[in-house]
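Q: I'm teaching a short session on how sequence maps to structure, and I want students to see two examples side by side rather than one. Could you give me a first protein with its sequence written out and its structure tokens following it? Keep the formatting plain so it prints cleanly on a handout.
A: Of course. Example one:
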Amino acid sequence: MPVPRRTRLLPLVPVVVALIALGCVSAPDERTGQAPVAPRTTATGEDPDGTDTPEEFKADVGDAERVAEAYWKAQFKASGLKFEPIAQVIPYEREGEVACGGQGLGLNNAAYCSAGDFIAYDINWAFAAFRQIGDAFIFYLLGHEYAHAIQRRLGIQKEFTIELELQADCMAGAYIGDTERKGSLRLDNGDLEELARGLEAVGDDPGQPWFAEGAHGSAKQRTKSFNNGYRRSLDPCDVS
């Protein structure tokens, strides 16, 4: 879902990166006053408009960041709070090229780094997912990581990693759902079904303990959290 153009949503597979980051997402190795944004790709990952170029990808990343920033700025204003956007979104190509708190980020990954207040992502992995899955992937990716930045700004702390991750999924769902209802984003037919399939494909391995470091939640848990936010806004996300 680009902002005044088009997009779609697809989740990311959780990967644990021991950083000074509040959370991260990664995929499996094998793989505003503007017009509303809408998704561009088909369920097969083939773009009917040919909009799967590096230029389109870069534009979608910018749109996703702008939409998330505008959404949270409005939420903070409504609550009488001062909002500060994240410092930057950083793409990288090599393992360790970008560091968070002195530790290099790995490939096939995206993460929010609280130490530098930035979001960083493996651009080759993200672009491959963009072409295979669609724009929605980028909006979910930025939405989930931006949620971690909001958790930090609100001083939200949880006993287990999984609690922060499921809350971030809920917050990502709220940002997408609320922005769509406002008319700044547009979901085309089939986009929600595709998102649901994507969320079901990610998640921790069966049997992953709730208290495990870096746990993100099962596919069912993540789907439920995202859908709660998408349908009911921030109410079920417990961000107050």
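Q: Perfect. Now a second example for contrast.
A: Example two:
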Amino acid sequence: MATTLNLVGAGHVGRVLGRLLARQGGFAIGQVLTRSPASARQAVGFIGAGQPVKRYDQLQAAAIHVLAVGDDQVGAACAALAAAVPLAGSIVFHCSGALASSHLQAARDAGALVASVHPIRSFADPAAVAGHFDGTYCGVEGDAGALAVLMPMLTAIGAQPVPIDAGAKTVYHAAAVFASNYLVTVLDAALRAYQAAGVPEDVARRMAQPLATESLANVFRLGAAAALSGPIARGDMATVARQQQAVSAWDGPTGALYGNLIEPTTALARRKSR
């Protein structure tokens, strides 16, 4: 018998999970509730299964309820779900990378097991992600009984679930910001510094690309400490001081960014020398 699953919120993440589970077999998509009837119908069309509904009280009982809503809506959506649907014996999970499963306390109080499942992907193109989901890492945490069901479910659709510490969920999410958002910020500083030295923007990108791609490849092949090179790795702090002074004179905020990176890079260099 298929495991029934309802979707509350069906943006890019919810749609991808819904389509993958519907196609996997063994899962039956029940109701799909979003902010508007039109978006619910669109989500059902993308998923290829399910029934669009307008209100929480139209949701039926299901083995699994997915809250694929924005972080600021998780608590309210969980409370509304718990007030409208019998949850005893079911599983409720959200897809937030920043919030722990403890934000689903209303569902737990109603007798559900709770968890969080955070797929570590960019979902800008849901169709492309759904077509190439194999190998996607998912940070998971929550009640043991919920994870006993959800981890095999994720494996079945090609994901690689990774248990994480719920108490460190915010730090976990910050890891993605360092690996993605702040990496782009640092590369932007490099490109602007090249341009300040008279290098055209398109040439600056071509100059920085081999440095950036080779450094990234070395980090993932060797580890961060072994991949570190440059003046701090060589112990040439006189050059570092001159660079910080020059960058600060050119652009104060970028100079501050450079200065803030000296201490952690020095600590990384000490790890390299061990």
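Q: What should students look for in example two?
A: Point them to this: The beta strands are 3-8, 27-33, 51-53, 64-67, 91-94, 113-119, 137-142, 160-163. Also worth mentioning: The chain has a mean pLDDT of 96.
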